[in-house]
Amino acid sequence: MTLEQIMLMVIAGFSAWVFWRQLAIRELALRHALAACEKSDVQLLDQSIGLNGLTITKLAGGGFGLLRDYGFEFTSTGEQRYAGKIFMIGKTLQGTKLEAFREPSSSL
Q: What is d(CA 76, CA 1) in angstroms, rounded to the nearest whole number?
């Protein structure tokens, strides 16, 4: 094997590892979105989230981390869509934001 082939294998392996790690973090963010929706008594739409952005941020203990911003949509009444966000650094939840939404009218 040549040095070029070894480097290509290392790059391919690293790329695969990054891809699988990203998928694992996305699945965890989806579970956090589901939990936030259940807690607020709203319904997560499309059962999916999307990566909105990546930002390098300073960590509390020093050093830097990659802040992932995921977006999702939910509904409280079934008629209107609202936006929500999940913020993750690695596999750690940093925060959740739900757009202000209309409470469903209760009939007595």
A: 59
